[in-house]
Description:
The chain is of the alpha/beta class. The chain is 33% helix and 20% strand. It has helices at 16-31, 64-73, 82-87, 104-111; strands at residues 4-9, 35-40, 77-81, 99-102, 117-119.
Amino acid sequence: MPGKFCVSLTCAKDDADRATVAFVVANAAVGSEQETIVFLSTEGVRLGVAGYADDIEETGFAPLRELIANFAAAGGTIYVCSPCFKKRNLDETKLVAGAKIVGGAKLVEFLAGGAPCISY
């Protein structure tokens, strides 16, 4: 039975290196048959909006838009912090594939069984 794995991400264009590596790790986890979520909070919620990551490319890595799309296509789920999203007045109708706006309780529910979580 596959396990669970969480990647918590608090940055976006303000630290493109961390944002990119977070999705590299998330893709590795989902590729290893782990039920994987990426939890986007604070500035990271911007990555939940379609088109935002289109121009983010770090040397040595696939473009972030591809990493996000590949993660969703492989069955990964992106949890987007509801209060953080609302604070930034972002558009809920323009979420990337695999993204869901959730409250903190949803993250706690996922982690409560002992799922490991790495933060960027």
